[in-house]
Design a protein that fits this description.
Elements (H helix, E strand, L loop, with lengths): L1 H27 L2 H12 L23 H8 L3 H11 L6 H22 L2 H46 L4 H11 L4 H13 L4 H11 L3 H16 L3 H25 L1 H24 L5 H5 L1 H25 L5
Helix pairs in contact: 1-5, 4-6, 5-6, 6-7, 6-11, 7-8, 8-9, 9-10, 10-11, 12-14
């Protein structure tokens, strides 16, 4: 009864905190209401705005809640979280990510109190608490893979633009307008930086820092060297595109050769879980000592640790890093 009351109190506190955060956000930024009213009246205006305007001022605010903003400014990890959010292509703020992690962790802790299981509570709290961060990391990796796959086509587009007589900055603008996400917005941002007065060298270096791709670094290095030493830029870009595509073919062959090892890893990793489920369905009392006694808990922790280590070793064997 006491644990139920504690869980109920935690849930009420969580909901109250969310309401206070939302109200504080509304009060702290009344200019949103002003902007909404201005946009409402400007919809009927006959004045046409430019289709695309570069963003002159970058919003580096960590959170729209003043208290959370002051707290995050003092933490060194805030810059890393902001960099991760930017690589994932998300418009989320660092404060929103932190609030999501706290809310998910508190929800897992409340469920564990209702179930009255300490071990399950620790697992749920940790897993749910870090779930938003893990999702963001996976989103950043997926975005990077998409950029790498689209990059050879962008090089071909740039080569065609240069052959047609366009300048390099115009070729960058063409890629920014025509290429899909995530390659198009990144090149568009590079062109806007150059168009607003930043040196082309610095704009390209910023692009390579935003996207941690070896192919992109090769592209930036080739352009910078060509601007200093001269040479046929069209031919250089064609060679880079050809090299990247040949490397893609090699990677595909390697994945084909290592498919058996990866399949073996998945089968060996899933077999214990499948056997536990089957035995639990056929004879539920057979595995009850494993979940009820302390020695069984130790064996479960040991088996999970060994399974994770086995996954890691097999993954290191069959995975070939190309970035």
């Amino acid at each position: 009864m006491t644990l139920t009351l504690i869980a109920f109190f935690c849930a009420i506190s969580l909901i109250t905190g969310l309401i206070v955060a939302v109200i504080g956000q509304r009060i702290a930024h009344p200019r949103r209401e002003i902007a909404r009213r201005v946009n409402k009246f400007s919809q009927d205006s006959v004045v046409e705005k430019p289709a695309e305007n570069p963003i002159l001022i970058r919003n580096d605010q960590l959170s729209e809640i003043p208290l959370l903003q002051r707290i995050l400014e003092k933490l060194n990890i805030s810059s890393r979280l902001r960099e991760l959010i930017r690589k994932a292509g998300s418009e989320m703020k660092v404060g929103e990510l932190v609030l999501r992690m706290l809310i998910m962790g508190a929800a897992g802790f409340a469920v564990s109190l209702l179930l009255r299981n300490t071990l399950l509570g620790v697992i749920l709290t940790v897993f749910l608490g870090f779930a938003p961060l893990i999702h963001l990391i996976m989103q950043a990796q997926k975005r990077l893979r998409s950029f790498i796959c689209q990059f050879p086509d962008a090089l071909d587009m740039m080569t065609s633009a240069l052959r047609a007589g366009h300048a390099l900055n115009q070729a960058l603008q063409l890629i920014g307008n025509e290429a899909p996400e995530p390659l198009g917005p990144e090149f568009k941002r590079t062109f806007e930086q150059y168009n607003l007065g930043l040196d082309l060298r610095d704009a390209l270096i910023n692009l390579s820092e935003r996207i941690p791709s070896l192919d992109l670094k090769l592209f930036v290095t080739a352009i910078l060297l060509q601007r200093e030493t001269g040479g046929n830029l069209t031919e250089i870009l064609e060679n880079i595109s050809y090299t990247i595509r040949e490397r893609f073919k090699l990677i595909g062959q390697i994945r084909t050769y290592t498919a058996q090892g990866r399949m073996s890893g998945w089968i060996l990793g899933c077999l214990p879980i499948i056997f536990v489920v089957i035995i639990s369905l056929l004879n539920p009392e057979y595995l009850s000592p494993l979940f009820e006694e302390k020695l069984g808990h130790k064996l479960i922790f040991s088996s999970v640790f060994l399974q994770i280590m086995g996954f890691y070793v097999i993954r290191k064997i069959v995975r070939v890093r190309y970035q």
